[in-house]
Structures
1.
Amino acid sequence: MTPETPAEVVPDQGPVEDLPAYGADGTDLTLIRWMLSKTPGERLDILQGSVRSLTRLRDALRNNGLLGAS
Amino acid sequence: MPSEITDYWALLEALAKHEVEAIVIGGVCAVLRGAPVNTFDLDIVPRREPENLTRLLAALEELDAYYREAAHRRLRPSLAHLASPGHQLLMTRFGALDVLGTTTGDRSYEDLLPHATEMTLRDDLTVRVLDLPMLIRLKEETNRDKDRVVLPILRHTLAEEQRRKG
């Protein structure tokens, strides 16, 4: 099995302006390109930050009575 | 006290520290493969071989793992639980961890291994992660609402990755 290291993250080879921003189904392709430009460790950091932010937002809503406790 | 926020780094570090052989699947796999999705748990398929399960149990003990559905009883996983092909849906002090004996289509660690590669997250942390084509296939086969929602993102991520590689 070949280890996949950050060095193997494939750089974008096409000019961004020639690429569509959205897929036909509405998927945001710019987010995908942005994620693919990151190393696996950076991608995990992004997920960690996202989950932390969403949890903080949920807690704020709950503390303000705008969301039921689950 | 379990964490309200899943700490993916801490969970993966604990598994690595105990040299647990496992394949990361699910949402964290999708993220590591470059898909911009969110998830609130870590899904792994461990090798169900006695020595590996002993190491996994040691990791779970260190993580203070217990079954989410029996939180009030603090029911802990055992070697027999981990040896089964079923799903152990656990809460730990670093958040939710799902240990899956098998996944869709009764696929075990050995079945998934040819479709996984090692990814280096840090110099001292390497994890085995399912590849995107197989992750997509699993989600297509499972065909639950939550899987159908994420499938377009996974397919576009695979297409974009292939475009970049030329």
2.
Amino acid sequence: MSESKKEIKCVIWDLDHTLWEGTLVENDEIRLKPGVVDVIKELDSRGILHSVSSKNNYDDAMEKLKEFSLEEYFLYPQISWNAKSLGVANIQQNLNFAMDTILFIDDQPFEREEVKSAHPEVTCIDASGYIKLPHLPRLNPRFITADSQKRRKMYWDDFNRKVEEDEYEGPPEAFLASLDMHFVIHGAVEEDLKRAEELTVRTNQLNATGRTYDYDELNAIRLSDKHKLLVCELTDKYGSYGKIGLALIEIQEEYWHLKLLLMSCRVMARGVGTVVMSHIMQETKKAGKKLRADFKKTGRNRMMYVSYKFSNFKEVNSDEDGNILFENDLSMIQPFPPYIDVKIY
Amino acid sequence: MELKEKIRKFIESNLVVFEDEAEFSDSDNIFEMGFVNSLFAMKLVNHIEQEFSIEVDNDDLEISNFSSVDRIVQYIGSKKEN
């Protein structure tokens, strides 16, 4: 299998002889590898998350991380005596990233092989390479946006939301209502473009076409009066999820043509997917046009396909590459969910 | 449990409005009424596939097959016959 070229979203660290020198359970003197803190902080500032998959006693290892003031950098740390591939799988599920955006670093060939055999798409590297991580192209995102700098905090917020959701006793709608969600849709301004490009690159599951657009293309679209470029932001009582959605509409004579629609998978469980779709349908109807939409099956975006079909889009035509042209007669538009306050600017 | 009841139970456990506001008949369009969210569509398809051991083809992913309790029952019935 060829190595993925995708940007790395998360680095998973082994601890003994990788993050630090020495073996914790042997009561060795534990010292962090030289420069490793700088590596972690540098990647963190680029919006790349860190986690741990290590064979150790959980409490002892967390205690040690706390001593080094590194605890806050590691999301969903997996420290147990189970196979490390299980830890990697847990982290992947919790972060909801694709396997080919994960990098695993460990000093032992056996552990790297074990992870690789269970998850062939994970990039595995030897611990000796840690100092070079910031120089690897796949760990250098093209832009560092306000959203990427806040990413770790946003994932900690997600963690706290999950804890509360798990503990919540009562019907799911009451939990959603308790979050006090606000969903804002507005036309993209220049500051949004880096994040918009980032969204087209990072989003796979909830992406209608899988097409990426770069900054200059998006800026030309933003300034064109033949297009609408919409950005969505979601906040709740914990804070902002950031700019999590993007829609690109081409205005044609007879149709509004939705060229791109995507939504960060972080908000999947919030049931906000139809909000922007309903908004676009309402606006198209108001403008007296019909609505068309491009879709491309990518093997990862069936959920998006279902969303289109359940929003009453019908296939006009399709080809063998999985490109689909949808049309919607706007006869049925879902109302916004009652538990979300929607604002449109 | 009867098929119809099973479907109704599943929908009721996934409503996004409070139960006392959510009276719906077997023929009401639950999507138009705003009782369910975007996530529900995918959940419903997965649930039907697992619970009734059928595969929902892309061609069948029409909202008209899933918009009410009656329609879902009808759809499952037609799949089971084949």
